[in-house]
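Q: I'm writing up a methods section and want to include an example of the input and output format. Could you take the sequence below and give the corresponding predicted structure tokens, formatted cleanly so I can copy it straight into the document?
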Amino acid sequence: MTDQNFLQQWNEININEPAPETEPSRQYYFMKKCKVLLEEKTQELGRKLTCCAVTFGCQMNAKDSEKLLGILENIGFVATESEDADFIIYNTCTVRENANLKVYGRLGYLKNKKKKNPNMMIALCGCMMQEPEVVSKIKESYRFVDLVFGTHNIYKLAELLYQRLNENKMVVDILDGTDNIVEDLPAERKYSFKAGVNIMFGCNNFCTYCIVPYVRGRERSRNPKDIIREIEALVADGVVEVMLLGQNVNSYGKNLEEKITFAQLLQEVEKIEGLERIRFMTSHPKDLSDELIEVMKHSKKICNHMHLPVQSGSDRILNRMNRKYTKEHYLNLVNKLKESIPNISLTTDIIVGFPGETEEDFLETLDLVEKVGYDTAYTFIYSKRTGTPAAKMENQVPEDVVKDRFDRLLKTIQTISKEKTYAYEGTDQLVLVEGVSEHDSAYVTGRLSNNLLVHFKADSELIGKLVNVHLDEAKGFYYIGHQC
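A: Here is the clean output for your methods example:
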């Protein structure tokens, strides 16, 4: 939504009337109601109240956090990165149980802070809150938390905050599932020149190691016209690169009345004038179509990169994981991609030590890694996730065996990745400048179409611009270059 449209709808809201029933007008109403209460508190304290959103997990969570901050800033909070803020919101992840433990630890830290600041409020939202046992634990052991809500009603932050401010007790609002998609809310973007755009929510795949379908719900695709309208507004606001987000973008459109494929959506996005780059994630191999590969082949805007999680190279383990493809099918997809887009950068996710994995299974994974030649891979040691079928499987792999396999896999991937990086040394590449280098303020950092980083000397005024850079030296996983 453009600022003009938001302001128009915002100005039409009358808080002296009953709350609207339709979204997002209902949330604008509660934002305005909260704003009045916050202004009173600001006058009482003689200072602005601050807010901080801490994001755990994936890029979809990061996108949700931008919405949460946008709502809070419109209410009147001033955003800060410090957890000394007056309003702290943890947007949680629950893919691994470790993530849950991390949140509990941080809550213990906040408890002492809240004792010193009676104005502090603490909110918990996101995937972790979709687990009933987690919510029960929060209610019993963390009574100082003010708001608890899940993945399906992120948009209700203002309404829930207003309820909390009036009732002065913990507010818990969890939906088991929803067909409702509420967008058109204000967002505080991290970058002015690039943005994530949700195209769908949820997942229907039920991989045996994954909790996501249980906490994110079934697949729900957004209306393509709404997606295009959002991207057009972002481009008008200075965005040159978008990342289309979904748990499985290749399934986009399957639940819509008017059928549209992900490939067809990409073609529509490509038509948007002023948009320079299109990225997307994540793709599931079982749904990667020839149509999508063809669209990528002819596109002038889709980045030369695909993240295609394989998880294992063993057919036996892939079957136990319920991935619904074989090693041969995956390698055929890779060959099609490389034939159509010769310089495509391929990245992946791999799990080591899945229950029942033998040395032979692991060697199949190593073989696949060598045949594909990934630019990089995100490797994970399998850990039990309560609530998933894999957690109950027999033949859990001993820790020392898993560690040995993990180290061998990592060494193989790093060797291949370095070789791939050196292939671009000495070439000129188009780079989107993303910021000043963290290591040397005389340098800026940018990202190539294939998602690799390059550092080169330049002024910060180039941030957000696409520039040609000569890659002088490959450093393994990034480049040092100079502007052409």
